[in-house]
Design a protein that fits this description.
Blueprint lengths: L1 H5 L28 H10 L2 H4 L19 H19 L3 H10 L8 H14 L7 H16 L6 H8 L9 E2 L6 H13 L12 H24 L10 H7 L3 H16 L5 E2 L2 H17 L7 H23 L6 H6 L12 H10 L3 H24 L1
Helix pairs in contact: 2-5, 4-5, 4-10, 4-12, 5-8, 5-10, 6-14, 6-16, 7-8, 8-10, 10-12, 11-13, 14-16, 14-17
């Protein structure tokens, strides 16, 4: 059986990551699955993966069943990345594992929630919060009841280095040891901007990184049009002429360009014309979609919600409030080793893992308790 699982290595290009190259941070028991194939299983059976289905991609508080959720986005990234990977002779198992796991650490309410949780984390002296780094933390220290899932270094690195906000004309992998990976991981908590300097250690990681960008650019335009935030006529003609107008055209144009310019190379590359248009389209999306995705009132509501819950849970931990869900539903299910974390880190982990609906539910429950307590005090 294992030999059959290894067969695909025969068809990989010389710069691809072979299954025998897999590195683990701790010893693992092998079975008939190859390492990166097993990574896929461990990721899709994680609790964090389940929560993708109710986590925002761009738009929250909108009544439209066809808007992209985080679950759909990671599948788009996986499909695009595997298409490029197969055409270039790369390891599709590593690509799929990294693509499906790359946003596990995303907060409720998308990048707005991430920005607010970063502010809270800094005030609490817990360092910078970045969803890609938190995805790695989830897999190494929180999943599997606080014992972590033993994921390969290559998959963890591709997840940590996936930053789809940063577009580049060329992506060169940078070899790393375990120690170098862990140093980069820890540095992201300590140093402002360290996360922007991350570079994947494999070509597969480079493919996942660019595929994250490809997956959301056109799809976010379609979501914006569904909500009447923009229309196709708003997109500059030079972008439409080069990349296309619809998501289908944009994905196909960029994917084909990358394959054409990267085939037979030890790096991932796109043509200058395509790269320039991607930069223009990103700018267009930020100005016309992302900055308008939330009203000032909605942003204020999310900020109040996350800060309120953070302060509430800190008090619950200090007072050992066993009726609180942070203890009853979260901490009681985790290992003694995990419980050694600071109260602030535990609360950050808990809030970051929430879906949008659960976050709203917890906040509304708190407001109801607060309101009832106020009434009781007045009656006395």
């Amino acid at each position: 059986m294992y030999e059959n699982m290894l067969n695909h290595n025969k068809y990989l290009c010389k710069w691809a990551t072979k299954d025998d190259d897999a590195i683990y941070l701790k010893e693992t028991n092998s079975d008939f699955r190859t390492p990166f194939f097993r990574d896929i299983d461990r990721i899709i059976y994680s609790l964090a993966f389940t929560r993708y289905s109710d986590k925002t991609q761009v738009f929250s508080f909108k009544e439209n069943d066809h808007l992209t959720k985080r679950m759909i986005h990671v599948q788009y990234v996986s499909k695009i990345a595997r298409t490029i990977g197969r055409a270039l002779g790369l390891n599709e198992d590593l690509i799929e594992a990294a693509a499906l796991g790359h946003d596990l650490g995303h907060t409720p309410f998308g990048h707005v929630g991430e920005s607010i949780l970063n502010e809270i984390s800094l005030k609490a002296n817990e360092g910078y919060f970045n969803h890609n780094v938190h995805s790695v933390r989830l897999l190494m220290f929180i999943e599997n009841y606080g014992n972590g899932k033993n994921i390969t270094l290559q998959t963890l690195d591709a997840i940590m280095c996936h930053n789809g906000k940063i577009a580049q004309n060329e992506y060169y992998p940078v070899k790393k040891t375990k120690e170098e990976f862990l140093k980069e991981y820890n540095e992201c908590y300590k140093t402002n901007g360290a996360v922007k300097k991350l570079k994947p250690m494999t070509l597969e990681g480079c493919v996942v990184r660019i595929s994250d960008l490809i997956a959301y650019l056109g799809r976010d335009i379609e979501d914006g049009i569904r909500l009447k935030v923009i229309n196709y006529d708003d997109i500059p003609n030079d972008i439409k002429d080069t990349l296309g107008t619809t998501n289908k055209e944009i994905v196909n144009t960029i994917t084909m360009d990358i394959i054409k310019n990267s085939l037979g190379k030890n790096y991932i590359k796109m043509s200058n014309d395509i790269f320039k248009c991607i930069e223009k389209l990103k700018k267009f999306n930020y100005e016309n979609i992302y900055y308008k995705a939330y009203t000032q009132e909605e942003h204020k509501q999310i900020k109040d919600m996350l800060n309120t819950l953070f302060n509430r849970y800190i008090e619950d931990l200090k007072n050992d409030n066993r009726d609180s869900n942070i203890i009853k539903s979260y901490l009681n299910n985790l290992s003694e080793e995990y419980k050694k974390n600071t109260k602030e880190r535990i609360v950050l982990d808990y809030i970051a893992g929430m879906t949008d609906d659960y976050c709203l539910s917890e906040y509304n429950k708190y407001l109801k308790i607060k309101h009832n307590n106020y009434e009781v005090q007045n009656e006395n």
